[in-house]
Design a protein that fits this description.
The protein has about 400 residues and is mainly α. It has helices at about 1-25, 30-55, 65-70, 70-85, 90-95, 100-110, 115-135, 140-155, 160-170, 175-190, 195-205, 205-210, 215-235, 240-260, 260-275, 275-300, 300-305, 305-320, 325-360, 360-400. Helix 6 packs across helix 18 (about 305-320) and helix 10 packs antiparallel against helix 13. The two termini are about 40 Å apart.
Length: about 400
């Protein structure tokens, strides 16, 4: 387009020279001369205006030219503030997010057949997700994910949640298999370690008991009594010791919810667990496994829709379609998440845009902006040439008529 605009200006210059030579002998060429002369003026004026935006015309340091390079820092700051004021305001995002049915789009994506719009959308979205996952720094992104999970775990108070889970399990008798397992483990431990009990009785018995062999009898009686006690606990759900154990579990559930000391101890254990290198390695592995799984699904979305995973995803899509309340909940969650991101990281995004533009050299920003709007700028030159010529033609026609 730049060559077309420049060629048109040169054509008008050549036409002006020819028409000026012929107008003296043939008056009709006066119209052509007026058109080409005004077209040259219009084309030159618009060439100067367009060029002055990005550089000095003909390399001359004319005042108020090369506007973009001289003001690139101000342009970056203005662009950043424009983004902040018009796109990253929580109220603006919340208002616009209300118009989006994310749950409906997700349901359409999951349930539409392969050849439908959902299938095409699934292919395009999956390709974009794969490119994003492959383009981001895995270590840095993994560190961010791990840090985010760890931060959420630190913020969440786990003791009350554990207490509520235990309370519900006890109320529904789901703790009984745990007690049965503990009793079976105690029976096996007793059978495997009876020699330790016999040794303890033998060492603590007096010399007379050892000489008469009564220590063995005491040991047999002790082991037999413990064995019968464990068997009775296993057979009788109302055994006093079993009820005592249930009472202890119920007390622990209450302490986890309401006792400050118990909650503090659990929180301290949680913090130590999160800081443990083994836990950090587990989080690393969790993120890598999740990333690899996402990449597999993104690279082959139709394959992911086959088998059990596909059935689960289609069922989820059907649930979203048939449950308006769940859809509203998801839309509200997505809206709040996006608004929260804008509120938390909006200033950081603004600084990133501003600092990025400030970091560009003048040639870079000039080239990028000129390439972005270059065709329209050259159309301005073309339109200026043609409109100028028409105005000059009209003025000459009026002058002839008068």
């Amino acid at each position: 387009m730049r060559r077309l605009a420049g060629g048109l200006l040169l054509a008008m210059a050549a036409l002006f020279l020819v028409s000026r030579h012929l107008a003296a002998t043939q008056p009709a060429w006066g119209f052509v001369q007026a058109f080409s002369e005004a077209a040259m003026v219009g084309g030159l004026a618009d060439w100067f205006a367009v060029t002055a935006l990005f550089r000095h015309p003909l390399g001359l340091p004319i005042p108020h030219t090369a506007i973009v390079p001289r003001n690139k820092d101000r342009i970056g700051d203005t662009l950043a503030q424009f983004l902040r004021a018009n796109f990253l305001q929580p109220t603006v995002i919340s208002r616009r997010m209300r118009r989006l049915d994310v749950a409906g789009a997700l349901a359409h994506w999951l349930t539409d057949p392969e050849e439908g719009a959902g299938g095409r959308f699934r292919q395009g979205a999956s390709k974009l997700v794969a490119q994003v996952l492959e383009g981001l720094d895995p270590q840095r992104l993994g560190g961010m994910v791990k840090a985010g999970i760890a931060a959420r775990l630190r913020e969440a108070e786990v003791a009350p949640m554990l207490g509520r889970v235990m309370k519900a399990a006890i109320a529904e008798q789901r703790h009984a298999p745990l007690l049965d397992g503990a009793i079976r483990w105690a029976a096996k431990a007793l059978a495997a370690n009876d020699h330790l009990i016999r040794q303890m009785v033998h060492e603590r018995a007096g010399s007379i008991l050892r000489w008469t062999g009564l220590d063995e009898t005491v040991a047999d009686k002790l082991i037999g009594g413990l064995d019968r006690l464990i068997a009775d606990m296993a057979e009788d759900p109302q055994h006093p010791l079993r009820l005592k154990a249930e009472e202890g579990l119920d007390r622990l559930a209450w302490d986890l919810q309401f006792d400050p000391r118990t909650r503090e101890r659990v929180e301290a254990m949680k913090v130590e667990l999160i800081a443990n290198p083994a836990m950090q390695r587990w989080l690393d592995g969790l993120w890598e496994a999740a990333r690899a799984g996402l990449l597999r699904i993104a690279r082959d979305p139709e394959g992911a829709m086959q088998g059990q995973l596909g059935d689960v995803l289609r069922q989820l899509g059907g649930t979203l379609t048939g449950d308006p309340r769940l859809a509203r909940t998801i839309n509200r969650f997505v809206r709040r998440a996006v608004v929260g991101i804008a509120a938390d990281y909006g200033d950081g995004i603004v600084r990133l845009v501003s600092e990025t533009v400030r970091g560009w050299d003048a040639r870079t920003i000039t080239t990028r902006l000129e390439n972005a709007v270059g065709r329209d700028l050259q159309y301005i030159r073309i339109n200026g040439t043609l409109v100028g010529g028409l105005v000059g033609l009209a003025i000459h026609a009026v002058d002839v008529l008068l």
